Amino acid sequence: xxxxxxxxxxxxxxxxxxxxxGLLYQNTRSGNTVNLTAPGLExxxxxxxxxxxxxxxSSREWEGNVLIVNFWATWCPPCREExxxxxxxxxxxxxxxxxxxxxxxxxxxxxxxFHDVYAINFPTLVxxxxxxxxxxxxxxxxxxxxxxAIFDRNGKSRYIQAGEVKKATLEAELNKIL
Length: 178
Description:
two-stranded antiparallel sheet; 7 strands; Glutaredoxin; single chain; five-stranded mixed β-sheet; alpha/beta
């Protein structure tokens, strides 16, 4: 392969990667919602990850609750933006059976520090690449962060969103279930 052909091929690959990265960023920032219609994605799967204290936590612990599972990372600006809303909503609706669970795709020490700074009042798990696979199985096709899935008391998927969840959206979706 001669030099001009290699250069053109390199430029095409670089352009494709840049376009894919731009699409991923736009998807994460736009807050697009995705409906679950594929078979096998309707129910909350069993999963277990360690929490920030090293204790293994299982999705079965929260059976019978309205469960909001949020995938996030400390380096993710929209994740930081929505976390105070989740803390406030957990405080306000805990007695109505609403349970948030945050699953970090990040370093455990950073997650622990973030948890303390934001005074998170719900389980914070550290999932790594297995959490990415779980998010994919729930409909996160572009590995977007944050990614949030809401399940009713029977474990049925009711709503998923790639990108930051806004207060009006969260309230509307929870009101449909509660």
